[in-house]
Amino acid sequence: MLAIRPKTLPAAVAPVVVGTALALADKMFHLLPAMAAFIGALLLQIGVNVANDYFDYIKGVDTPDRLGPPRVTQSGMISPGGVKAAMIIIFCLALLDGLYLVLVGGWPILAVGLASILSALAYSGGPYPLASHGLGDIFVFIFFGLVAVCGTYYVQALELTLTVFLMALPMGFLITAILVVNNLRDINTDRRTGKYTLAVILGEKGSKIEYLLLIVSAYAVPLICIFSQTVSAWVALTLLSLPLAGGMTRMIFREKGSVLNKALAGSAKLAIIYGLLLSAGLLIPLYLTI
User: Cα(35)–Cα(256) distance, rounded to whole angstroms?
Assistant: First the structure.
């Protein structure tokens, strides 16, 4: 459970919920592809977490003065070989799940699926780890935001719309915000071990501003879409999560170190609550017309 890091799993669940809500709203919902997308997203998130645990140990990034939750490889709870085996099994399961989605969605899903798995491995592994070169935030935004929402919709509808892409943006912002908290907490230990996350590159102040901009953008996109009549005004339900977003932002600007573990869990909670409110806002107009 420590290696899986359950508190981060809303990052996988929330975008799939939104993608499925969009499919329901467009009367394109299909149960089996939606379930497969949900399982695949969970497996990829778990796979990234386990791979990060393994590769950060191998590369000497994890040290005893780490402020986050214990890493199972570095702490010796599970042998490196055991963690590596678990990583391989998880990605193989994700691949099997993806084969079904390829049968449903064709070559676009094959391309996206392979890119997702390769990027998940390259996040902290390989000769040029994305997370160690300031590219982790972009990876998370693309694959756990845009691809997760758009891919979930596509395997059900077999097409994409502008609205789907626009609704994927706020989820990408919020999921990326979770990573920002994680990297802000570890900024000092990452700097000492040569792991140049975007937080290390931007510094503490820059990372806090990045978090604020991501949160503001997540709430701005639906409002812009409402004013442009791209989506229903019910999407403004997302504003109900603003108190939680404000609390997390204040914590980010005031606290540092291990206290940010609470902000990490809170940011993940924000992502799932926001995703549920956004989904409700997309679906309510459908049921009002029945």
Answer: 38
> What is the model's pTM?
0.91
Q: Mapping DSSP to helix (H, G, I), strand (E, B) and coil, where does residue 133 land?
A: strand
Torsion angle, alpha carbons of 105, 108, 109, 111, to 10:
160
Instruction: Give phi and psi for 81, each to the nearest 5.
Output: -65, -40
Please tell me the distance from the alpha carbon of residue 267 to that of residue 127, in angstroms, as a whole number: 31
**Would you kindly state where each structural domain of the chain is located, as residue ranges?**
6-288
Report how far residue 171's alpha carbon sits from residue 23's, in angstroms, rounded to the nearest whole number.
16
- Return the SS3 of 238: helix
Q: Is 132 helix (H, G, I), strand (E, B) or coil?
A: helix
Read off the DSSP letter of residue 135: -
Alpha helices in the chain (DSSP H): 10-25, 31-58, 80-105, 107-124, 136-140, 148-157, 162-185, 187-192, 198-227, 242-254, 260-288
pLDDT single digits (tens) 210-249? 999 999 999 999 999 999 999 999 999 999 999 999 999 9
Q: Six-digit token pair at 139?
A: 């990876």
Query: Who contacts 115 (Cβ-Cβ below 8 Å, separation ≥6)?
Result: 143
How far is Cα 99 from Cα 205, in angstroms, rounded to an integer? 43
Tokens of 174: 């919020």
Separation of first and last alpha carbons in the chain: 44
CATH topology of domain 6-288: Four Helix Bundle (Hemerythrin (Met), subunit A) (1.20.120)
* Percentage of the chain modeled with pLDDT above 90: 59
The tokens for 22 are: 């969009």
Contact residues for 77 (Cβ-Cβ < 8 A; gap 6+) = 2, 70
Q: What span, in angstroms and rounded, lies between the C-alpha atoms of 57 and 46? A: 17
